[in-house]
Amino acid sequence: MGKAYVAQKKKSLGDTAVDGLVAGLPAGVGMAVVLALVGFVSGRSPMVTLGYFDPAQNGRWLTGLLAHLAVAAIYGVVFALLLAAMGRIRPSVSRLVALWGMVYGLVLLAVAYGVWFTAVPSPLAQIAAWQMALAHGVYGLGLGLGLRKNQ
Known about the structure:
The protein is mainly alpha-helical. 72% of the residues lie in helices and 0% in strands. It has five helices and no strands. The chain is elongated, with a radius of gyration of 17 Å. The two termini are 29 Å apart.
């Protein structure tokens, strides 16, 4: 019996972006759940925690949740595109996508503390740093695992 060759189809940038969007949403849900739970254990209502994400800073939990999910999806697109670009340069990168996702989540945390929280007064700064680190790690892991499925 002869060898069978299967042509590999490269994903378009649009398909990669959609994969990131689709992976970013559940990862964002996971992050929000972690923040709500650790906030609750610390004595803060989950509604208050989600209200911190309200861009108008009115403390509306539903607006905060939707804004958070939108940002999580957009960051998912950015990660998927970065991962695809790195994979073209070094294909072995795709084997460690869950680890790269966690690194990405922690880079987002560093940017939040280094740029966002210093430039704009945000209620998110009221969340303890360890809680934010845990939540960003969960986000990145979820993002990486979500994208690993699509490879």
